[in-house]
Amino acid sequence: MPEGPEIHRAADKVRKALQHKEIEDIEITLPQYTSWKKKLLGKKVNKVEAQGKALLIYFDDIVVYSHNQLYGRWTVNLKKTAPRKWNRSLRISYSTDKHTCRLWSATDILFLEKWELSGHPYLAKLGPDIVNPETTIGEMMNHLNKDKFKRRRLKTLLLDQGFFSGVGNYLRSEILFTASLHPDRTVGSLTEEEKNALVEQTLFLARQSYEIPGITVDLELYQKLRDKGESRSWSRHWVFTRNERPCHQCGDLILHTRPGGRRLDYCPSCQH
Ligand SMILES: [Zn+2]
Questions:
Q1: pTM exceeding 0.70
Q2: Rounded to an integer, what distance in angstroms lies between the CA atom of residue 14 and that of residue 28?
Q3: Where does a domain end: 65, 98, 124?
Q4: Catalytic site residues?
Q5: Residue span of the structural domain in which 147 resides
Q6: What is the pLDDT of residue 1?
Q7: Tell me, what CATH number does 184's domain have?
Q8: Separation of 210 CA from ligand 1 center, angstroms?
Q9: How far is the CA of 267 from the centre of ligand 1 (A)?
């Protein structure tokens, strides 16, 4: 599933193609929304933004909300390029004079009047966005210190979008490793120093994997591993998907667990 860094990169591509442009052609295949076509045709896109794992396209009075879940994907092409043929179903396509942006296979799409946005259940409960450059360490610390999170274990809490929005499976494993925290720890058991490490590592890893797609290890280490002939997929993470392989820091074997049915890998020696 795409996580915060991936959805922010998708938003950047869509923004480049649509923002401040007029929609010259629009296709909506969702039967409940086909009547919105005429409301959007010829309208200008004011803003495109990612919030957590959702993407929002703002028109004057209307906002189109989409959450990609497991299978949703955005593609951006020149208008004259034929759409890709693959096993995904087209949901919406927006064309400007130059580009066509297509949303495929997403299951969670809503056309909202602007005033409805603040009441949207997913957006209303989102915690601070980990990729947004305006999110600060102070804001993350205040949020983390809220009473409601005290008894929650990090392994489940980190996937809760109401905590830090944008964290998914790979970031969860990687943040816990670089912050040296065992997945079973509760927020209430963390020292100030550990809380700081958790927040700083979350922002650091989210931004690194936004700027350098999919790489969460230290970049020098990544280069060293690649130079030694390791594949990209074995080199790019500290622990995620590296179970049964030696930890880059201590050499012990990385362990694999599946809390809530979702992959979490960690080092039993480096994480306390
Ligand atoms: Zn280790």
A1: yes
A2: 17
A3: 124
A4: 2-3, 53, 262
A5: 137-266
A6: 66
A7: 1.10.8.50
A8: 25
A9: 5
